[in-house]
Design goal:
5-stranded parallel beta sheet; single chain; globular; about 290 residues; about 10% strand; alpha/beta
Length: about 290
């Protein structure tokens, strides 16, 4: 069984966002970033308040160095805690311009399916028959996963769920063609869930929630594909978080080389000059 699962995962996608998530999580500083969880936009998105895509999609835009990736990891962990129940799924991807060739659309959809397979197995839930049928058929013909096939499998999974939360960090770092394809697929799935028959277990429609981060320049591009002004949240490094980050760095790296007076001055001045980014205080501290 373990060997067949490995073969299935290899067929679905080579992407392993879990490794990236662990790396980002390990770099997070305690007691930072929690502000995003308290915003009205985020709370409305979690609850699905509103109408159509405007309530199911939350676009978090911020300039480079604002902390988007770390916040994404925080939100994923938070949602994993509050949604740890059957028929609720969490899938995610950390986009990276350095991995554009490997992060193509089929691999992205495939890695979402791979994460869903793992979650279903961990809860003892039965996988959709289409997963086994497609894998067996393609193994016999030695074909890779096809896009249309992947989308059908993803829809099958979502039909078995009450809620499906999808997280994509740095959407702007995908190749243009891949990003356009992803937005089309996301729009198709959201529309499918809104118009499809009731959930096979609960007799009520399942809900898909999409959370993504990106640089601001693709905002109008995103809205065009969803056909509406999706909910947005501006990502800006908070002064309190920057101060906590700097205090941690000083205690870890400069404890013996800095007196308390200098530390106090740094913690007062650098956050005020951060311009909403971690990068400026970080660079100044390293000079």
């Amino acid at each position: 069984i373990a060997e067949s699962m490995e073969m299935l995962f290899a067929w679905l996608s080579p992407l392993e966002p879990q490794k990236r998530h662990q790396d980002v999580r390990s770099s997070r500083i305690a007691n930072t970033g929690n502000w995003i969880l308290q915003t009205d936009q985020f709370q409305s998105w979690v609850k699905g308040e509103g109408s159509s895509h405007s309530s199911q999609v939350l676009g978090c835009y911020g300039i480079p160095g604002a902390g988007k990736t770390v916040l994404t990891s925080l939100v994923i962990d938070y949602m994993s805690t509050i949604t740890a129940r059957p028929r609720t799924s969490i899938t995610y991807l950390y986009c990276d311009y350095r991995d554009q060739e490997e992060q193509d659309l089929i691999h992205i959809i495939g890695t979402f399916i791979k994460q869903l397979v793992l979650q279903f197995i961990s809860t003892g839930a039965q996988l959709p028959d289409l997963v086994h049928e497609s894998f067996k058929s393609n193994q016999q013909s030695r074909k890779r996963l096809e896009l249309g096939q992947a989308i059908k499998i993803l829809k099958e999974f979502f039909q078995l769920l009450d809620h499906a939360f999808i997280f994509v960090d740095a959407l702007d770092e995908l190749q243009d063609e891949t990003r356009i394809g992803f937005l089309n697929v996301a729009n198709e799935i959201l529309h499918f869930q809104a118009t499809s028959s009731a959930n096979k277990y609960t007799n009520s429609p399942g809900a898909v929630h999409l959370f993504f981060t990106a640089r601001p320049h693709i905002r109008h591009h995103v809205n065009r594909y969803f056909g509406c002004e999706v909910a947005t949240l501006r990502i800006v490094a908070q002064e309190d978080d920057i101060q906590t980050y700097l205090a941690h760095r000083i205690d870890c790296d400069y404890k013996d080389a800095m007196n308390s007076r200098l530390k106090t001055e740094i913690l007062e001045i650098l956050p005020q000059k951060s311009e909403g980014m971690y990068v400026h205080p970080r660079r100044t501290l390293c000079i």
